[in-house]
Amino acid sequence: MPLNSTRGAGSAKGFGFTAGGFKPTDFDYLVVAGGGGGRGTIAGGGGAGGLRTSFPGGTKITISDKITIITVGAGGSSVANSATGSPTAACHGIDSSIGSSIISAGGGYFNAQAFDPGTPEFSPGNTAQRDGGSGAGQSHQGQTYPGSGNTPPTSPPQGFPGGPGGGSFGASGGGGATQAGVNGTTPGSPSNASGAGGAGAANSISGFPVTYAGGGGGGAFQTTGGAGGSGGGGAGGNFSGLGLGSPGDVNTGGGGGGASHTAGGNSTLGGSGIIYLRVPAANAPGSLSVSPGTNTLTTLSPSGDKLATFTVSGQLTL
Questions:
Q1: What CA dihedral angle connects 57, 62, 67 and 71, to 10 degrees?
Q2: Within 10 A of 289 (CB to CB), how many other CB atoms are there?
Q3: Is the N-terminal amide bond of 120 cis, ω within 30° of 0?
Q4: How many CB atoms lie within 10 A of CB 242?
Q5: pLDDT in tens, 24-68
Q6: What is the pTM of this model?
């Protein structure tokens, strides 16, 4: 899914200082945002974090500042049932970005806890929370307000919408990087089955193929939860047991699985995002580095390309 156009100007503008002695450098990139969480009972799966990339064969990003701020978005945070009036925390995934030029939007979540004070299911605030890089899935009982993907729009799309809902007691899955979430079935076979999360996208910028940004599966009503989408999407919670959905995988941008009918409104985490920047060794500045130490700068074999991997927010220095 190579990028043909970027948001904003062509160069990534960082913060800090600029200095002579280095030249602007073109990098291939992969930017994955944090996935949305799964919220409420019989909840739609969380949308995957938005995925934008130039690799392979797309338009590279030109970085012309000595220091560029890299932001790796967290997954949507987990919150407890607030039907009794306790505060409701956001479960939307957090954006990931290279400076201010390449921004991938966090995945959406659907707040199916209708009794939360001040947050009715179809309020404008909840509409905004459902939309994202990929949209959240839909809850049960005929609701037809899935989250929109590719919000804000990019070309090619950074993600897809959640499953449409509409008549199913099983919740629908969240959208993924290459596929919309799947709707639940009613009556279907099995009856009231929940929908799977949308599939993510495979990419080899790291030197080997890895799939990122899968949507979370929908929570169950009376059966099993929907499967998580390939690329780190968490499975929806089953009717049996605690009924909790599975979290999205760390550093994939996967959406969290929706909780089931038996989970009491508890929710699940979305997966955090990740950012890669890759440059041929011949073009890499000798002073190229990353910080903090959790992030890495490696040499790929056999190409010799330099790969900067950001699993947490930090800085790229030329």
A1: -50
A2: 12
A3: no
A4: 12
A5: 999 999 999 999 998 777 888 999 999 999 999 999 999 999 999
A6: 0.88
